[in-house]
Amino acid sequence: MTSDQERKLLSPEEKTLVDLIAVHYTPIPLTAAQRVAFDQALTERIARRTRVFFLRPAAAVVATACAALLFWFAAPYQWPFLLDGGEQPGTGKVAREDMLPSAGEATLLTYAYDSPEFYGDEDNGDEESFLPDEYEALAVAFAIPGA
Amino acid sequence: MAVGVGVLETDVAAAAREERFSAFVISHRERARRLAWRLIGGDETAAEDVTQEAFVKAYQALGRFREEASLATWFYRILVRQAHNYRRWRAVRELWSGVWEGDPPDPSSEGGSDPGLRRRIARALDRLSRRQREAFLLVHLEGFTVQECAELLGKPTGTVKSHLHRALSTLRQELADLHELTGGVSS
Question: What is the CATH number of the domain that holds B169?
Answer without folding.
Answer: 1.10.10.10
